[in-house]
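The freezer alarm interrupted the setup, so I double-checked each line after restarting. Inputs confirmed:
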Amino acid sequence: MANIITMGEIMCRLSPPGATRLVQATAFNIVYGGGEANVAVSLAGFGHDVHFVTKLPNNELGDAALASLKANNVQTNAVARGGSRLGLYFLETGFGIRPSKVIYDRAGSAMAEATDPDFDFDAIFANANWFHWTGITPALSPQAAQLTKKALIAAKKHQVTVSVDLNYRKKLWSPKQAQAVMTDLMQYVDVMIGNEEDAQLSLGLTLRKTNVTSGELIKEDYLEMFRSLSSQYGFQLIATTLRESYSASKNGWQALLFDGERLYESKRYLIEPILDRVGGGDAFSAGLIHGLLTRDKEQALEFAVAASALKHTIYGDFNLVTENEVDTLVTGDLSGRIQR
Amino acid sequence: MANIITMGEIMCRLSPPGATRLVQATAFNIVYGGGEANVAVSLAGFGHDVHFVTKLPNNELGDAALASLKANNVQTNAVARGGSRLGLYFLETGFGIRPSKVIYDRAGSAMAEATDPDFDFDAIFANANWFHWTGITPALSPQAAQLTKKALIAAKKHQVTVSVDLNYRKKLWSPKQAQAVMTDLMQYVDVMIGNEEDAQLSLGLTLRKTNVTSGELIKEDYLEMFRSLSSQYGFQLIATTLRESYSASKNGWQALLFDGERLYESKRYLIEPILDRVGGGDAFSAGLIHGLLTRDKEQALEFAVAASALKHTIYGDFNLVTENEVDTLVTGDLSGRIQR
Amino acid sequence: MANIITMGEIMCRLSPPGATRLVQATAFNIVYGGGEANVAVSLAGFGHDVHFVTKLPNNELGDAALASLKANNVQTNAVARGGSRLGLYFLETGFGIRPSKVIYDRAGSAMAEATDPDFDFDAIFANANWFHWTGITPALSPQAAQLTKKALIAAKKHQVTVSVDLNYRKKLWSPKQAQAVMTDLMQYVDVMIGNEEDAQLSLGLTLRKTNVTSGELIKEDYLEMFRSLSSQYGFQLIATTLRESYSASKNGWQALLFDGERLYESKRYLIEPILDRVGGGDAFSAGLIHGLLTRDKEQALEFAVAASALKHTIYGDFNLVTENEVDTLVTGDLSGRIQR
Amino acid sequence: MANIITMGEIMCRLSPPGATRLVQATAFNIVYGGGEANVAVSLAGFGHDVHFVTKLPNNELGDAALASLKANNVQTNAVARGGSRLGLYFLETGFGIRPSKVIYDRAGSAMAEATDPDFDFDAIFANANWFHWTGITPALSPQAAQLTKKALIAAKKHQVTVSVDLNYRKKLWSPKQAQAVMTDLMQYVDVMIGNEEDAQLSLGLTLRKTNVTSGELIKEDYLEMFRSLSSQYGFQLIATTLRESYSASKNGWQALLFDGERLYESKRYLIEPILDRVGGGDAFSAGLIHGLLTRDKEQALEFAVAASALKHTIYGDFNLVTENEVDTLVTGDLSGRIQR
Amino acid sequence: MANIITMGEIMCRLSPPGATRLVQATAFNIVYGGGEANVAVSLAGFGHDVHFVTKLPNNELGDAALASLKANNVQTNAVARGGSRLGLYFLETGFGIRPSKVIYDRAGSAMAEATDPDFDFDAIFANANWFHWTGITPALSPQAAQLTKKALIAAKKHQVTVSVDLNYRKKLWSPKQAQAVMTDLMQYVDVMIGNEEDAQLSLGLTLRKTNVTSGELIKEDYLEMFRSLSSQYGFQLIATTLRESYSASKNGWQALLFDGERLYESKRYLIEPILDRVGGGDAFSAGLIHGLLTRDKEQALEFAVAASALKHTIYGDFNLVTENEVDTLVTGDLSGRIQR
Amino acid sequence: MANIITMGEIMCRLSPPGATRLVQATAFNIVYGGGEANVAVSLAGFGHDVHFVTKLPNNELGDAALASLKANNVQTNAVARGGSRLGLYFLETGFGIRPSKVIYDRAGSAMAEATDPDFDFDAIFANANWFHWTGITPALSPQAAQLTKKALIAAKKHQVTVSVDLNYRKKLWSPKQAQAVMTDLMQYVDVMIGNEEDAQLSLGLTLRKTNVTSGELIKEDYLEMFRSLSSQYGFQLIATTLRESYSASKNGWQALLFDGERLYESKRYLIEPILDRVGGGDAFSAGLIHGLLTRDKEQALEFAVAASALKHTIYGDFNLVTENEVDTLVTGDLSGRIQR
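Predicted 3D structure, all chains:
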């Protein structure tokens, strides 16, 4: 199993119980999550030795976030403590024709204000095989962007494979700000994950004709985009998920992987009903990393898309599935028969 | 924004948590609701100055019902206090092929026993633009029927536009009793809302051939019914929703509006899954009133049907949506993508 | 109404709230259930005088299991008390493409260790009309298998009609063990219920070609299997349900009944969404027994399949429906309209 | 063990979770209870064959009330079905210096409107040893008062011992109404239970000087009252509890029993904290009946007061304790050490 | 009834259910509260026309905070909308020897960043009789301190009586910062509320010898402090509560009022158990204001201390009690007997 | 900080919510706990490097137990996986005069059936400073007793300090069985913890006159017992807690420590109310170990008794407190004032 590093912010997510709305809430269910933490938990669940790099406030909320990582088998030696607050987000889970809503309350979080001395990147990457990050981390703050770059330089110094999920977040930065940072950071990336919208907003690249909203997929256009990205940034692999959003409770789900030569196209899942789609992309990233570390590319892609399809039926940000459960789905058993 | 009056009974609704049955209940979730209160809350949410006319008992249950109105921006100056009890209803929410069940426990409620001196209708309608009532209010008791007539006379005296939702309830009165009261009250109505079944049971009118249960819609037959009602009662507008009930979790939903000349037919929504369909008709009434007050008839109808489609995904009787959320659905985005 | 006996183990079922996973649980919702207890509750709900034969530990958990039977109108005079523990099972309810999971924790239960002196079978069957058991009871332990045989002998001595649901459970015994016991016990059976998989594993018989997993039904093959079973064991009636498992939330559901001559094929239900499919087969058995006691064979089968389809929308192991509710579904109303 | 009959109304009790107030409630926990039902459940728990006589509406709420009796071992053959509604009461449980509050919503209940043909009193009392009723039953309505008298006549015809708990309820009738009915019914009573306030309001008798509110007990005055009641009505036994209400969470608790000659005075319990004092008096009545049926008078009184002290630590109206648990407390172990 | 203004921040309070710790939480119960909002709700509950001045973010969390005010009868016309976030605080409620803990997460809240143009103080105070504020409001931020001064100047311009609760919060500012602001603002104050610790930290004044922690009260020392404050700032009235903290579940509670001449000393309450002591001081302020507006000083103080004693038994920040409930306690009934 | 090993069984504890009884439960709250695991969690919380030695079944329940350890900072490298089931126990938490009840369901657990090859004791104790075990572990089964001895031998081989909590459990073995095993194992023990009852039942030694139930403490008698044990087994230190059980909600709590010469007597705490006393003894053991590792004997004892007093206010088996919180209590602040 590999030694894997992910770095980013883990937040407390607060959501009204059941399918009620935020304004109806008299209580919030809480879980912890965030793009890179979600990937860490998935990979730890698949058996890897995973370390998460973040900074958490020195109070009970920070303790609880830390405990959620430990309980899910993530190593936390590289977690710094301090700063003023834990990032929060409020999630109103959509239902059928009513979409989900997110209110971020993460400004000024410990990780957004973390600085270089909080982490010893040389030690962190000394024995690492893989480093995964997402576009959310540099978007947190200018110092977080600098921190990301330092981590990438250290990772490359230690010959660590680097993957990124572009994950553009319009509430954190503008396309202009994003592109200024992200286009520079792509030089350190081996495996790039991102859909057409992310690529456009984070890297300034446009997929010619595909209509993402309607779910129509024009694979040829994607192939062209991948070739263009590949030649511009030298990525070894590019992957994307293709979500067809019929409603908050029903999605089509498929993925593509490009290795510079061949375009792999996964099986398509119709996911209905959906319990919790937050973290679906992160489950894909984790599935892809695990797949690439243990199988051939075609199998890796199928593992990734099955893992992330399953995520839509798991409550919370974390994809609490085993490799065996994912493989059962890959093999084609969607029957949902009781195991007894 | 308009000054709108609605009058009726608000009840405490008690329902077993989740999708459990009444006999399984060890607790009841409670919300407050009732046809005219639901319309009031919707219209207040769309920004109107809405006053609800009712009578509530002078105890903590009456206080809680009142608080639910205030919290949802409804004005409660015209709420009388006194009487012996708050009306209740027990709701077992259906699930798939299992239908919902309602047990009414509203006999002898404060509003059913309210009388003329409880309300100063002249003051209530002095600055009003619109008065909405439903066939439930006069069905509560003979004195409630008299009260309704007095309110209507006062409304007309002050040149207030009057809308009604026929809303026949077989557990409150017989068709014969209903028709004796309702056919008389129609003289005060400008905008009539009611489906074929309501029209038949409340007004004695039959739609020729449509099979409501199966969801087959024969618009020509509806047109004929509308023309007949129009000529008989002089309504300016007639509207109806067309529900196709496939199961408790899946409905087709569409609406018609007739202005004496043209029959407007809305977009059709397939609502699946359904969270809570109680109050769907009230959400339509409120959407239609708001639409007619702010847009043209075609847009008004589309707003009304979208608002009421959304209601099916909101827990409770009240349609807790904003104008903006309804407009997003009208514009055609059913994708349920997370807003973040 | 008939005097009906069922015998088996009732367990405490522990399941995480909502659709969360076992590893996420901070609480377990509990209900009581087990194949034969479920049948007893259904039949008591349909108005029969039903006695359940089991043994429960002499502690509060045994008391609670007993109370759940009494609350559901099952007679408990024949329940022995004593033994070391109550059987438990942990259920993680599936959701969409994620299947349900069961962890049994029933070894050493009071019923598994019950012995002859615990029950007075002559008294139990003295006034009985019908005895229902399932393949789970003899699978509990060797002494439970002996007990089952003694009960069957007593039942036959008192001219009681005997039905069995084969219900093979691979976590309780091997096909070899099952066949050694079950083929012997078939001599006492009048009405046999079991699908192709059960027949194969419990009785060693194979249905020629049908692919159960994919839901393709080859009725001719079933007919051949029924004829073979009929001639081998002399069953008066053979029935089976035909489940098409599309996902944990969507199943096709139909049933067959063979009376030695004619093969009755029920209406097919598409059950979506599913709330709780545990006990679906037991609801079918109970529906069939009630149907055979009160109607003709064709109607009995339709009643059975409708009752069990409804079960999928009821939380818990018990099928808490009335005869009237089942008949409404049989008549064809799937509309889910609110009864008010 | 004895065959015991109790008769009265069982209600659904709705209370906000924890120690929240009625106006804060978004859910109500529900249990079922009522004076005579509570006594029935206690006595069934002590092993008697107990029948409860009431009338319940023919809906799911009536079913649930019935199930709560069955689950607690009460025989329900004599329960009539029909009428318009189930009686309800809303309970806000007090906390420390904040007192409990009850809102009754029981007018027009099935039992309040029950009439003679609903019950076959000859059959009911044919094998009975004891009949217990309370002053609440005749207070429900004039016809309920008549029904109570008919039951008492039948009981006496069958030589059944009769006990009453005066239980004056000021929200159901005035002292004048109460005395008109109750003084007449006392002729059938063998064992009378009631405190000074009850005796004054229900029977018009005053205890000379005792200050009940402050908890000061003047036993001599009680003795005088008992002697007076004894000579006037010929009771064999008179008993009363003596509650010292320091706060909603802290009470002193003691009882007296008078047999015409000797005044027995029980041990005094300081109950702190109190979980749920509703049904404390009923637990005393049941304890006393059980005690008188199985022990000498002194032990009977100690059993009764210990049983009712324990009730204050049990959630709900029903005193869910075993004879063994009560005896442990009688023996003097208040240590609360874990039994493991 | 009076027209009363209060100004400050209302926060969402998140607390683990029951008596669990923050690190154990899988959900947070939420209520809304804050010193000045709590006073507003109390006074509205006593029947006054109360307006709360604050700024809330333009999202669902702001909507929910606003709804909590409206539901509790507070006028919200003067609430500005906008800014970046709603202030939050996490509360771990203490239990016995374990103290409560608060984590503030209110930096950068809408109210902390509110500025002059958000409010029209002339309009706000035009018809007002009373203005209440606390030392928390100017502590929020420098601009909040300026805002407070502007409000005070406007209040005085309109001859409004001004009361303050010093309420020193060490997590918001240092004693030095507090004194720089507060000593200046005291010139506008008529009624000053604050204990010895507040007076020391906010105003730099020390009570000679009293040992607050141990609950020993040296009233002579308090009298001296009051005289000193009175002569320095010209307060008409000075009041303080005297809390004896035996544990998180048991407090002594008493209060003093000084009118420049006489020192009034209230009854002392022993509050045990305590449900929720947050907002106890605010309940005192509101009780005192209501008392001073409707009774003589002695009665006002008794009303205030009883109201705040009751608050300790009410869940949440708001003191949801009626004038009648407080008066019952003042009259001396602590018996906690059920009202039925 | 020290490297500490504890060994034993961790169970899933199931308890009805709030203060309800087992027979009332419709759900069980779950936590994980067990004597030695509780000690491990406490010590990890105080900052030590703690390893727990146990065996857990290879299913989701085993995973969840493991996650609870990790989340609380316990190292789990030495946890074996396999075996048939996770030990369970059902806890009905007492309330006031109603005692707590425990139903064990732990027979046949993975740890009870664990054997030598499951653990590499040489590796486990290689770097250890301290080994803590309790009398529960050898009581689980004969092989568990052998395992305990092997662990003790290995510990001694590596010069590890050994502490034991006698913790006699009458549901696991008889005094005779216990003494046969325990008197032998005492040779490896340095620090012995146990009260008079434990010493009598586990070691056959009697404290002359002390009446434990009544809470009367005769320290001289304890001193004599300690001297006798000391001379017999050569313990370096002997400690005991002295619980005075007034009710399930109120206990006195104190402790003694004997070092062969001096008897240290701690401060006495009156703990009222009690939230959860399970694990109170384990909290003492952990506090004592931590105290002995970091302070002098007198301070160690005070730390231990304060830590365990606090435990009574923490929900669950684990004592989730920090060293700082314990020290605050040691210093004498019982005031329960809010930290804000």
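Quick read of the result. Residues 89 and 104 of chain C are 4 Å apart (CA to CA).
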